[in-house]
Amino acid sequence: MRAYIPASAALAMFGLFSGVAQAHDPVFGIGPHVLFKNGYEVAIETNAKKRGEAKEQELMLEVKYGITGDWAIGIDLPYVRNELADQSASGAGDVSLFTKYRFWRKDSLGLQESAAVLFKVVTDTAAKETFPGLSKGATDGILGLTYGYEGRKWYRWASVRYRANGTSDNGLKRGDKVLVDFVGGIRPKPTGYLEPDTVWLLELNGEYGQRADLNGLQLDNTGGSEWFLSPGIFWTKRYFAIKAGVQIPIYSRLNGSQPKSDYRARLILEWHM
Fold first, then answer.
1. For residue range 37-47, what is the model confidence (pLDDT) as tens digits?
2. What distance in Å separates the CA atoms of residue 203 and residue 266, rounded to the nearest whole number?
3. Which of 10, 95, 184, 205 counts the most CB atoms within 10 A of its CB?
């Protein structure tokens, strides 16, 4: 009796054992990666950025759970330290709740294409310090759409997000933002599933922000656009991954008198369970 394996199952098995199943997402942009059903992902993330005299460091714990093979939910728990001139403040940041749903997936020989939608709520739960920046005084929402192409050697992603910012009790509404990301990646040496795997990334990240307003009056020195070129790396071994990258500003057109971004950096340690 001859065993029969459907073509779709054979392709899925090829993807699994060739390493395509080691799903990747960009460092700064978003990708369509989700978890397997009942799977957990725990990540420790550190962020650092500088704009003019203002510096910010963030340490964040992220926990994600796979409801199905296409739908995941998660929570971000940040701790933030802000510095400005001779002032500094630190404390718990705003807790975020998010969900991602992969609504399309296409598998072929050594290749997977997929697309997903993301929704995140950034709560107003930060420590209420007098130093500005820790507490924004409003709840924000983020809606995103992302596409990913993951092959044995080449990767590419594209995504767009819209951040709708809330209004604080004193009538301040920070301007809404649009974030756009284009990412390419290359695996220099194809590896097996059990071997360490390295993918080099190059991202182009754009941000456009509307002006803020206070009780209906627009604030001059707010809003504008910035673009960053962001080299990065994604290293994995079985269920553990390291992601790291630096955002280098290449274009800035900010409204009024605002300091430009000097740099942003990110390091992420991930465990899949």
1. 999 999 999 99
2. 13
3. 205
Query: Which parts of the chain register pLDDT below 50?
Result: 1-21, 130
Classify residue 241: in a domain, yes or no. Answer: yes
pLDDT at 2: 43
Q: Count the domains in the chain.
A: 1
Which pLDDT value is given to residue 128? Answer: 72
Answer whether residue 152 is part of any domain.
yes
Whether 171 maps to a domain, the answer reads yes
Q: Is residue 2 part of a domain?
A: no
pLDDT at 132: 55
CATH number of residue 164's parent domain: 2.40.160.40
Residue 84: which domain range? 7-272
